[in-house]
Design a protein that fits this description.
- With 110 residues, the chain is mainly alpha-helical.
- Helices cover 59% and strands 11% of the residues.
- The chain has 5 helices and 2 strands.
- Helix 2 packs across helix 3.
- The protein is elongated.
- The termini are far apart.
- This is Transcriptional regulator.
- Keywords: DNA-binding, Transcription, Transcription regulation.
- InterPro entries: ArsR-like_HTH, HTH_ArsR_DNA-bd_dom, HTH_MetalResp_TranReg, WH-like_DNA-bd_sf, WH_DNA-bd_sf.
- GO terms for molecular function: DNA binding; DNA-binding transcription factor activity.
Length: 110
């Protein structure tokens, strides 16, 4: 029984680690912003928006690696359609942060 509990706990820790790792990089946060602004983009479209709007001249390989980290954290999901791969943002994993550290509604006593 202890082993199962430990395994479940490790899974939660790994998921949180992946989430914070994904959010810890400025380029990945910009990619999430771009997908929030216009969901369902291809790698080519994301690279173009990063270059034009943010002046980030990242290679397709670098952006692809960032997307893989975001996907590992559950923040991005992909959908294949023919030769194209469309990337969609998923803010569901952010709920774990809100649930873990809820915002206090009352002012604390001095």
């Amino acid at each position: 029984m202890t082993g199962k509990c430990s395994l479940a706990y490790n899974g939660v820790v790994d998921a949180e680690r992946d989430l914070f790792k994904a959010l810890g990089d400025a380029t990945r946060r910009i990619i999430l912003d771009e997908l929030t602004d216009r969901d369902g983009q291809t790698l080519f479209e994301i690279c173009g928006r990063l270059a034009v709007k943010h002046g980030l001249a990242s290679t397709r390989q670098a952006v692809s690696q960032h997307l893989a980290v975001l996907e590992q954290a559950g923040l991005v999901h992909t959908r294949r359609q023919g030769r194209y791969k469309f990337h969609h943002v998923d803010t569901g994993p952010l709920r774990a942060i809100v649930d873990r550290w809820p915002i206090a509604r009352e002012e604390p006593d001095p």
